[in-house]
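#structure-requests
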Amino acid sequence: MAHKKQAGRRKPGARERALAEIRGDIRAAGMRGTAPRIAVLERLRRARAPLSHAELTAELVPLGFDRATIYRNLVDLVEAGLVSRIELGDHVWRYEVRHRDHAVGEAEHSHFVCNDCGTVSCLPEVSIAIRPAPGSRRSVVAEISDIVLKGRCESC
């Protein structure tokens, strides 16, 4: 005999599971899971590179969220340690999701910025070693928070 699904019950899809995880992360950080906060964090999780406030608002304002609310939620998510805020030398703050295994203030990965088109790319698989110059007795670098490589991308 065929088993019928209960009316109104269905197995949650990938998006529903992702939203539930986002809500849980927000609550675990001591914040309320508001619609704008969830929308901002969901969009940042889907991003392949850090996004600016302008890039986020271009996508979220048409969905009914206003620019100021998006900005306030970015600030809240940064303060809660769920999002990192970085500046890549062009005086534009960009935001990306922090991974659970990285401490706040610790660089997660380096970034590449194209000098010609301005494209920003994450370089999670690149390892950069910084050593004192030959002949120097010690390094003047106490802590590194961000590494930004600049050059020309493959498209340019």
